Amino acid sequence: MNTITIRKRAYVSPCRQGGLSLVELMISLTIGLILLAGITALIVQQSSTRGELEKASREIENGRYAMQLLHDDIQLAGFYSEYSPASGVVYTVPADPCNVNPGSSNSGWDSTMPSIPAPIYGYPGGTADPTAGTTCGLKNYKPNTAILVVRRTATAPVAATAAVAGTTYLQVSQCNTSSTPFVLATSGFTLQQKDCATPADLRQYIVDIYYISQCDVCGANTDSIPTLKMVQSGTATPIPLVEGIDNMQFDYGVDNTGDGAPDSYTATPTMANWPNIMAVRVNLLARNNDITTGYADNKSYQLGSVTIVATGDPYKRHAYSELVRVINPSGRRE
């Protein structure tokens, strides 16, 4: 009899997937937190770096723009239309730089002498507004910052028939039979061109006074951003030009020999030397509008002959300097 042997195949159950142990889970979480902290720190650092870069870029832009504005106006100083002062002309320094009233002797213009105002004038910095007592009214003047006065006429001529009422113009005679070299007035323009028949063009008389204000927006909601401002032709309202300009100083190039080239530089020319200013060294100190956390400005800055001591505040600063030639007076002496 055959015996049938029945073999049972062993059943092998599929492998079960084991879960993470508590230790493994905690290690994974720790590694994830470390990576997250590193990424967060990197993002914060990049954001801070980008913020500082933006502030530095704004500071550089403000400094360069302020320098360009001053450069362009200084180069035009002494542009008095077609009038070219002869050697006997007397240069005056009006006591009130903001008084452009042609009927006032303070304007510095007199066609009978003749006399004209010095193209460049400046006030050294003081604890109070150096123009106090004049009609300038430099509101919120920042102490110990210099003030620059630039006198010129507009580059665009105006027909005598198109004069705006109340505006001061300079009209220069080109007729060789006229005994009056020029007229500074608001009306009554009768001088003529070379044909001695056509009325001569007019050019608006401009006096620009640059100074540093303690605030950009001043008044009830005042801020503390130092700002380069300008008062033009006796207007009572200062014009904000560039914010973040913390200080401004000037050195003036004096021509002592009459050849149109500066022989020496000084921050305080004598009254007799203001007509001899042939160049201006502009020194600016620009400041960030926002603070830098953890930073203290412990540096001092040399603005020409003036040293600006360290403030220790959290604002970053940068100094700028440029020498600008006063083209019109110096060109006439060459």
From TrEMBL:
InterPro entries: N_methyl_site, PilW
The keyword Transmembrane appears for this protein: yes
Source organism (scientific name): mine drainage metagenome
Keyword Transmembrane helix: yes
Name this polypeptide is given: Type IV pilus assembly protein PilW
Protein keywords: Membrane, Transmembrane, Transmembrane helix
Transmembrane segments: 21-44
Any Pfam family hit: PilW
Record-level GO BP terms: type IV pilus assembly
